[in-house]
Amino acid sequence: MQIYDHPVFKMACQQFDLVADRLEIPANERDRLKYPKRSLSVALPIHCDDGTTRVFEGYRVQHHLTLGPTKGGLRYHPDVKLGEVAALAMWMSWKCALTGLPYGGAKGGIACDPRQLSAAELERLTRRYTQEMIPFIGPQVDIMAPDLGTNEQVMAWMMDSYSVHMGYTVPSIVTGKPVLLGGSLGRREATGRGVAYLVNRAADTIGLDISKSTAVVQGFGNVGSVTALSLAKYGARIIAVSDAFGGLHNPKGLDIWKLDQYAADKKTIVGFPGGEAITNEQLLVTPCDVLVPAALERQITGKNVAKIQCRILAEAANGPTTPDADVILEQRPEIFVIPDILCNAGGVVVSYFEWVQDLQSFFWNETEVTDKLFRILETAFTQTLNLSRKQKLSMRQAALSLGISRVREAKKVRGLFP
Ligand code: NAD
């Protein structure tokens, strides 16, 4: 399918094909599993504050509908393209199947730089996008959540726009919204907490004492900051972090709680006293025990993978490692990889909890949420590790094999209509 042509979609297809070859999935089943079921592209005109009208591109891709509604984040970033969104939707499918959630994968995006828009412009853009998506989404059809460049406020505007259209309040149309509007306790922290939990499990597996470890985190948004704070709570020393504007390095450890407050105030980590400036390229090759890419795709590539110096690579971002880098990682057994579809699954797991709570109008406390989250992650981690050991596969191959096989099996038993 030409319409999804994009380097990130190619990367997702390459990963799929490797697993499909190994599982000996016949050609006539592959396209059905690989290509998105449906997608919608929209033009989004809004009035800007300066009186002009601007048109933004928006997308939503629903990868498969075999196991339930589709679920996935909404991304605001200047580079958003249909093919990138399709890749992210495909990864969501394997992630939901790996963790046993009753969803297919989806993803959405608007090509915009949210930092260049005023709050009023961002609100108009979000509401217009939601309006355009109304025939395509619904609590039993497709449920959105925050991703890169979006947050609880964006979800609140979406929920309000959808509810106004329906004529009654529909909290279950989005997850990751404010708790006051039916959001789940622990959702904002879920992805980062999950990453830190799995880093702990990986550390146990390779005999690394997390309380004496060092960690480096790329990206200091929702996922990166909560991961850094959670790892610091486990006793890890966070020696470098970065965001889109630059990085900070302090071999003695950064005061991550103060840094979190600073970043909340200044909207960047740059300028924080207590660390030396470092580039994102340097950050990724800084010697450490735990390396956490928590920003964009394709950060660990054929060019820098030989230089990374960590014992655990925890892929908090989606698609941070390219397939050519993967080939080299497989020849570096000293690095334990927690692949993205497992590592950052905490977000969609607690989004699922939020959707369930909204549908029942019955809310759980934070301990219940976090306990249930860790139980699901534990099962997914153990199943992935066992398969990787049993069949001598990389952790990525094992995780993808489990996710893809479950979707394949579901399609098989449902059959093909008509
Ligand atoms: P966010 O917008 O809250 O934060 C992104 C961070 O990355 C910001 O600090 C930004 O400055 C930084 N960044 C952007 N470009 C960068 C670059 N070139 N180099 C270094 N840093 C850069 O987004 P988020 O929700 O934290 O998402 C981060 C990643 O985690 C994405 O890949 C997203 O798909 C993935 N993810 C998010 C969730 C979630 O619940 N939010 C769940 C699963 C996966």
Principal-axes shape call:
globular
Fraction of residues in β-strands: 15-25%
Q: Which radius of gyration do the C-alpha atoms yield? A: 20 Å
Order of strands, main sheet, comes to: 9-8-7-6-10-11-12
**pLDDT < 50 runs, ≥5 residues:** none
Percent helix range: 40-55%
Total number of domains: 2
SS elements, strand count: 12
CATH class group of the largest domain: Alpha Beta
Average pLDDT score: 97
Instruction: Summarize the main sheet.
Output: 7 strands, mixed
What CATH architecture of the largest domain would you give? 3-Layer(aba) Sandwich
The named CATH superfamily of the largest domain: Leucine Dehydrogenase, chain A, domain 1
Q: For the record, give the distance between the C-alpha atoms at the N and C termini, rounded to a whole number.
A: 23 Å
Helix tally equals 14
Q: What structural class results from the helix and strand content?
A: alpha/beta
Describe the structure.
The protein has about 425 residues and is α/β, with parallel strands linked by helices. The chain folds into 2 domains: about 1-170 and about 180-185, Leucine Dehydrogenase, chain A, domain 1 (Rossmann fold), CATH 3.40.50.10860; about 190-340, Rossmann fold. The protein has helices at about 5-20, 25-35, 80-100, 120-135, 150-165, 185-205, 220-235, 255-265, 280-285, 325-330, 340-345, 345-360, 365-390, 395-415; strands spanning about 40-45, 55-60, 70-75, 105-110, 140-145, 215-220, 235-245, 245-250, 275-280, 290-295, 310-315, 335-340. Strands 9-8-7-6-10-11-12 form a 7-stranded mixed β-sheet. It has a 5-stranded mixed β-sheet with strand order 1-2-4-3-5. Helix 3 links the parallel strand 3 and strand 4 (about 105-110). Helix 6 packs across helix 7, helix 6 (about 185-205) packs across helix 12 and helix 6 (about 185-205) runs parallel beside helix 13 (about 365-390). The longest helix is centred in the C-terminal third of the chain and has 25 residues, at about 365-390. It is globular and about 55 Å long. The model has no long low-confidence stretch (mean pLDDT about 95). The protein binds nicotinamide-adenine-dinucleotide.
